[in-house]
Design goal:
Its EC number is 3.1.1.96, 3.1.1.-. The chain has 150 residues and is of the alpha/beta class. It has three helices and eight strands. Helix 1 runs parallel beside helix 3.
């Protein structure tokens, strides 16, 4: 699994001109899933997200986590995170999990992250054409891959 985490002051996702999810301070997370991903990847990655210290403390240092800040999360499925651009100019998405594998893993990711945060995670809609808006705070953008733990 691969995520792109952006610390935001606000973010939203719109589908068919209707806002599906919106948050204030927190993370807007893009999630890419591969067929090889497991529940262990979800557990490790959701723990890492909850513990990531990229919010400012009272002294202005990045010392607090999203749980310390009681921040919100907007999670968007993003198969293009596994784009291969090695050959030609048209990306290949062969490394991204097909929907029959990706959807259950995506749903479990949402559930596990919600449990660890102690609040609901806002989402887009898997496979939909979505318009994502955000105000990146910092800017702070972090990428994490569950297969790159060292």
């Amino acid at each position: 699994m691969r995520v792109v985490i952006q610390r935001v002051s606000e973010a939203s996702v719109t589908i068919d001109n209707i806002i599906k999810g919106a948050i204030g301070t927190g993370y807007m997370i893009l999630l890419g899933i591969r067929a090889e991903d497991t529940l262990e990847d979800i557990d490790w990655l959701t723990s890492k997200i909850c513990g990531l210290r990229v919010f400012s403390d009272s002294e202005g240092l990045m010392n607090e986590s999203i749980t310390d800040q009681h921040g919100d999360v907007l999670l968007i499925s993003q198969f293009t995170l596994y784009a291969s651009t090695k050959k030609g100019n048209r990306p290949s998405f062969i490394n991204a999990a097909k929907p029959d594998i990706a959807i259950p893993l995506y749903e479990e990711f949402v559930n596990m992250l919600s449990q660890k945060l102690g609040k609901a995670v806002k989402t887009g809609e898997f496979g939909a054409d979505m318009k994502v808006s955000l105000v990146n705070d910092g800017p702070v953008t972090i990428t994490i891959d569950s297969k790159n733990r060292e």
